[in-house]
Write a structure and sequence with these properties.
heterotrimer; A alpha+beta; B alpha/beta; C alpha/beta; B: alpha/beta; Rossmann fold; 2 domains; 7-stranded mixed sheet; 5-stranded mixed sheet; 15 strands; about 40% helix; about 20% strand; globular; C: alpha/beta; 10 helices; 10 strands; about 35% helix
């Protein structure tokens, strides 16, 4: 099951790679594609993301939004 | 201060102290200063009377540089603010004054001038005319400059300075001198509360959810935008030139020689007028009260009626350049003055008048 | 610009704080300023004090801070941010006021204002970003440049006999009775960012309690000025900056 994921604002990313260094799951890479500024923006390379938010916290450009599997509401 | 039972509040006060009391009565909310002769009484008076005005911020800063930047912050936050100093201290403030002119922050800046250049002397001077009127700091900006000639005007110009600076969102300066700051005269103090407190929508007062954030800045990095800002500032200065000229003419109806003088020297020139007229020489006086805007049209209006102009200043001849701009070469414009803290006497000025009156025009 | 996409069955656990504007930042890739801006705005969001906060921006790389921070702001002259903040705070004592300055601004041209603002115990937060270099003007030597550090104005390395020593201004201000809370943090790892966030939260809390000046130094990077990749810069930071500028509290309330 996919536990977490991220969405990168591709045109904001400057490819500093600090998120890649901060990711404990090694699930980020630079895209072979370029954004409008000419940077190889960051993207997920596999489905091991846990939604730990480390990448987003160290992102200087606030380009990453992090999602996690919603907790199932407890049975009443 | 003091119950006057409905009578005018008449005092005998030192210029600096009268100015400080006027600022409190004009609703000043913050004052930041630094001691320098001959204006230290302003800070002393305000700190002594501070306890009677707990709503007023009075702070002795670590330098004139810090003080002017505190004024910038307090004005940007929407407060009615005043700062006072003397020539060397005003020089230190010039960067901040340029920033305030660009950011369009109202403030009353008082220069109780002393003789220079450099550390100079503590005696009175008018050597900072260029600095006050032509810019002083960097960039194309103007201050509204008022030139008091009495302790009463030290008071009145505080109210007028606050009013004009807030009306135009522009720093205003009172250009006084050490004599006006130190002399004692009778003065009528206006009641407190006669000047409505400012309410600036542009001030950094905390961004409410109903408006965009307010930013006070003088940085406009795009040249297109910076030019637009400059054009808007220039348009404002033209409006001020149209609407806010203050000038007094004394004995000009029949004058053959027009003395032109501001501040302290205008008082000395009045004595010269008396002495000259006793000798049958018809002398009048034009006294600019606003130095920016300069009363060019008033001076020009006398070009066809006088033989010559004589500008009298306590400097090497600064305002005389504006008089010449007004006269445009149509009459001789002479100058006499003393420098470095020396004050010209009525007799010295009269002697100069006698050398220029009824002289045949040069071929 | 706000991302409204939510994957099926997922919930948002981290997004850009709303008090940070959508304006793309002008900072170089990997620059610490962006993280510090974000964390500062995150705290303002979470404390719900956007309408009560007034910031003061410096001259330096963060001169455009007011483009990114959606609070009322003033842009100060070079070095004078703490004097401007003093003016703001004195006439708006119930607002949260912070100044944001780099090392050249706070520890060279503005040293006098820095010392005296803290010495008066002004109830403001002074945020000080130290990357040992003048970034905006193109990488000149700063008061905090390390000995031996090559910059565009110390091309053969900073040498103490002619250029003096790197200035530990934070140690200096910690000595002043007006300082209530003085700490040195960094943003080069997730854990450090979280510590900085706690320090900023504490500072605003102390400000509300009128405790005195809170002073936070953030030892940060300058990949462009140091001529390194962002990852190399953060490694260099750990190896060279932290030994001289050790992280942690220099003065903390008991």
């Amino acid at each position: 099951m996919i536990r977490g994921t991220i969405v990168v604002a591709q045109d904001i990313c400057k490819a500093c790679e600090l998120c890649i260094a901060a990711c404990p799951q090694d699930c980020l890479e630079l895209s072979p594609n370029l954004n409008i500024k000419g940077y190889h923006y960051v993207q997920l390379k596999n489905d091991t993301c846990t939604g730990c938010v480390n990448c987003a916290i160290v992102c200087p450009d606030s380009a990453i939004t992090v999602y996690r599997q919603a907790k199932k509401p407890k049975a009443a | 201060m003091g119950n006057t039972n409905g009578n005018p509040d008449v005092r005998l006060m030192k210029g600096n102290e009268a100015l400080a009391e006027a600022a409190l009565r004009a609703g000043m909310k913050a004052y930041f200063g630094y001691p320098i002769t001959p204006q230290s009484e302003v800070l002393e008076y305000l700190t002594a009377h501070g306890p009677e005005h707990p709503e007023v911020v009075i702070l002795q800063a670590e330098s004139e540089v810090a003080a002017i930047n505190m004024i910038y912050g307090a004005s940007g936050a929407g407060a009615r603010v005043m700062i006072t100093s003397s020539s060397p201290g005003i020089s230190l403030m010039m960067e901040g004054i340029s920033y305030m002119a660009s950011a369009q922050l109202p403030a009353l800046i008082v220069n109780v001038q002393r003789g220079g250049p450099g550390l100079g002397t503590i005696q009175p001077s008018q050597g900072d005319y260029f600095q006050a009127v032509k810019g002083g700091g960097h960039g194309d900006y103007r201050l509204i400059v008022l030139a008091p000639a009495s302790v009463q005007e030290m008071v009145d110009h505080v109210f007028e300075g606050f009013r004009l600076s807030e009306k135009y969102r522009n720093p205003a300066m009172i250009l006084a001198d050490g004599a006006l700051g130190q002399m004692m005269e009778k003065v009528v103090l206006p009641p407190a509360g006669s000047l409505a407190p400012p309410d600036f929508a542009w001030a950094t007062s905390g961004k409410s959810s109903t408006r965009d954030r307010n930013v006070v800045t003088s940085l406009f990095i795009q040249p297109e935008r910076m030019e637009q800002i400059n054009l808007a500032l220039q348009a404002k200065y033209r409006t001020i030139e149209e609407a806010e000229v203050r000038c007094e003419s004394i004995g000009m109806d029949d004058a053959d020689v027009a003395l032109v003088a501001f501040g302290l020297t205008s008082r000395i020139c009045q004595k010269t007028m008396e002495l000259a007229r006793a000798k049958g020489i018809k002398v009048g006086l034009i006294r600019p009260i606003t130095l920016f805007p300069f009363p060019y049209t008033v001076v020009r209006s006398y070009v066809d009626r006088v033989e010559a102009f004589l500008t009298v200043e306590m400097n090497a001849g600064q305002m005389v350049e504006d008089v010449r701009l007004a006269v445009e070469g149509n009459r001789p414009v002479h100058f006499t003055g003393r420098m470095g803290g020396m004050i010209p006497t009525p007799e010295e000025i009269l002697a100069k008048v006698e050398t220029i009156v009824h002289q045949p025009a040069k071929a | 610009m706000e991302n409204t996409f939510i994957p099926v069955g997922m919930e948002v656990v981290y997004k850009k704080p709303q008090t940070l504007t959508d304006t793309p930042m002008h900072y170089c890739p990997g620059c610490g300023h962006g993280v510090i801006h974000k964390i500062l705005m995150e705290v303002i969001d979470e404390m719900g004090i956007q309408s009560e906060t007034i910031g003061v921006a410096p001259v330096g790389c963060s001169v455009f801070a007011y483009d990114y921070m959606n609070v009322d702001m003033q842009e100060a002259a070079h070095g004078r941010a703490s004097a401007v903040a003093t003016g703001v705070k004195r006439v708006r004592p119930d607002k949260f006021v912070y100044s944001y300055q780099g090392d050249g601004d706070l520890a060279a041209i503005g040293t006098g204002e820095t010392i005296h603002t803290v010495n008066r115990g002004e109830n403001i937060l002074m945020l000080f970003v130290n990357n040992g270099i003048y970034g905006m003007t193109g990488g000149q030597m700063a008061p905090t440049s390390l000995l031996g550090m090559k910059t565009s104005t110390s091309p053969f390395g900073r040498e103490a006999s002619t250029m003096g020593y790197p200035l530990k201004i934070t140690e200096l201000v910690a000595q002043l009775p007006g300082a209530y809370y003085v700490t040195r943090q960094s943003v080069h790892t997730t854990a450090n960012v979280r510590k900085l966030k706690k320090a900023i939260e504490a500072s605003f809390r102390y400000q509300k309690e009128k405790k005195g000046t809170c002073f936070i130094e953030v030892v940060s990077n300058c990949p462009s000025g140091w001529k390194m990749t962002p990852i190399e810069a953060n490694e260099w930071l750990e190896k060279n900056m932290f030994p001289y500028y050790p992280l942690g509290d220099l003065k903390a309330p008991k």
